[in-house]
Amino acid sequence: MVAKFLPGINTMAPPLSGSMGMPAAQFFGLDFMGATLYAGVWFGAGFLFSGFLSSITRGYSAFGDIVGWVIGVAVAIWIGYRIRIWMGTRKLRPVRLIKASDLANIAANVMVLDVRSHGYYEKDTKRIHGSARLEPNAIGEQAAALPRDKEIVLYCTCVREATSAQVARALEDRGLKVSVLEGGFSAWKKAGLPLEAVPEGEVVPLPKFV
User: Fold this and answer.
1) Kind and range of the H or E run holding 98
2) What is the pLDDT of residue 110?
3) How many CB atoms sit inside 10 A of residue 2's CB?
């Protein structure tokens, strides 16, 4: 009877009773009395404190309404932010795009640059065969060394090639001829085109928790 009120022990009580040889009639009688007592205690507590419980329920309901409004406003702000970015992107000048199959045919005659924002942070990272790294956050320091008599093709893993497009516009402003791989690194891999491992010296390992 007491075990009904003790989590864990309530689960252990039936097999313990059986292992100690308690008669079935005695077990079911005590079990029924314990279940009745358990239900009665909680029913009585609910009856006695019904007014207090109603206040708590109303409080939870009001809190839920506030949380719902906060979530709704947050979603509306996020949607507005995405629309603002989309509209801002539409105002930017378009960049030249090149398909993975076309790039594969001319790869030997162009410079292919990897501008993934987080492309070199994982061990055994792959990149397009023959490509080199161009850090998108330090274009000014590297642009001077890029060839002006050779077409440059950029690739990344962003939605709608966002990073590649941004870097392409910056390089075009410096007088370079630039194209962007349509579909980025994913399109190249999906086409089954050659990849290579990133040289170990170019990998930037992230800190690990031991």
Assistant:
1) strand 97-98
2) 94
3) 10
Tell me the H-state helices in the chain.
9-19, 24-48, 50-91, 100-106, 139-143, 162-172, 184-190
Q: What angle in degrees, to the nearest 10, is found between the helix axes of 24-48 and 9-19?
A: 160
DSSP 197: E
Instruction: State percent of the chain over pLDDT 90.
Output: 31
- What confidence tens digit (pLDDT) does each residue in 74-96 have? 999 999 988 887 776 666 678 89
Mean pLDDT confidence for 116-125: 72
Closest alpha carbon to 110 in 125, 128, 135? 128
**Residues spanned by the domain of 171:** 97-202
Q: What CATH number corresponds to the domain at position 121?
A: 3.40.250.10
CA-to-CA distance for 163 and 140, rounded, in angstroms?
A: 15
* Integer Cα distance of 135 and 127 in angstroms: 14
Residue 36 lies in a domain: yes
Q: Residues 117, 146: contact at Cβ < 8 Å? A: no
Buried b (16+ CB within 10 A) or exposed e, 39-66: eeeeeeeeeeeeeeeeeeeeeeeeeeee
The one-letter amino acid code at 2 reads V
The residues, ordered by sequence, that sit 6+ positions from 98 with a Cβ below 8 Å of its Cβ are: 153, 179, 180, 181, 182
* CB neighbourhood size of 184 (10 A): 23
Q: Which amino acid is at 206?
A: L
Q: What tokens does 35 get?
A: 């279940």
